[in-house]
Amino acid sequence: MMEDKFTRIKTALYNTSFKQLNFSEQMKNRVKQQIELEENAADLNLAILQLLVNEKTGYELVHLLQARGINVIKDNEGMLYTNLHVLEKERLLVSNWSQGIKSYRLSDKGKRVLNRLEKEQTDKGHPFKKLIEG
Amino acid sequence: MEELEVGFIDFAEKTEIIDSMMNQYGQELFQLVFSYVKNIPVAEDLTQDIFVKCYHSLHTYKGKATLRTWLWRIAINHCKDYLKSWYNNKVMLTENTNDMEHHQVQNVEQIVIQSDEDNQITASVMNLPVKYREVIYFYYYEELTIKDLAELLGINHNTVKTRLKRAKELLKKELEEL
Asked: B-chain residues within 8 Å CB-CB of A127?
């Protein structure tokens, strides 16, 4: 009698809670969007670090990034400033105000991270996954 | 079910792999996650996170386990981390236990056709503490062997047996009281 109930677990779960669960196309798309977003952010961050080995203003960065074909910021320059802010907060960049214009360059930590990322990239032959390990 | 294979990886290929993994394993993974967190919106979020995480970890897949088992392991760890942080944050405990009832009420039509027995069994399984619930889930729902279960959960063969025995005792007690 009790064994019957155990063997019924599969059917029971299937008929009750699991019936309401549907891994929908919408969920799949959200995963794909998230991945794309993270890949773009990673590409952008790597390019920012590479360009900031020498000090540059945000304005200069926008042009240089576009010249490199980093298109994510094309219609969204705000994204660049968000990333700069995050990178600065993670102490990968240091900033400097001069005559009302803010410029950025790599910190020592930023240089180490850039080295590691570039090494990883050549090692694996594909772009790194995550710039700042959470 | 045919197993997916992963060899070399670049962005396009990785996306494709995740895509087929979602098609092949998405539904069962969603159920697995739900069996841990017992809450549909949370299970949705975590399932999505797990596939993103899996995308980022694809290069670490060495082919020792099947891709499905590898994915399950990532999922189990992710769910347990969530539960741990969730308990640590001392979020309302009561919310969790009531979720089953709450979600069951959502679809009246279903309730009508469900037998009471199924509801009782499900509720009893879902009320088990995680370490007993997971062995019941993988043993009875996914029909894993004790050996596979031990490997999946990274615990000893005998521990699986002991937990399974204890889980059945707990279930029995609860189902008999009804």
From this structure: 11
| pTM beyond cutoff 0.95 | no
Tell me the chain A residues in contact with residue B74 when contact means C-beta distances shorter than 8 Å. none
Question: Using CA atoms, how far apart are residues B56 and B42, in angstroms rounded to an integer?
Answer: 21
Mean pLDDT, contiguous 10-residue spans, chain B (178 residues): 52 87 97 96 95 91 89 97 77 48 49 71 94 97 96 96 97 84
Residue A93 forms beta bridges with which residues? Answer: A106
Chain B 51-70, residues with CB within 8 Å of chain A CB atoms: 51-52, 55-56, 59
b/e map A84-107, b = 16+ CB within 10 Å? beebbeeebbbeeeeeeeebbbbb
Whats the size of chain B, residue-wise? 178
Q: Do A17 and B55 touch (CB under 8 A)?
A: no
ipTM over 0.95: no
Query: What is the rounded distance in angstroms from the CA atom of residue A51 to the CA atom of residue A111?
Result: 11
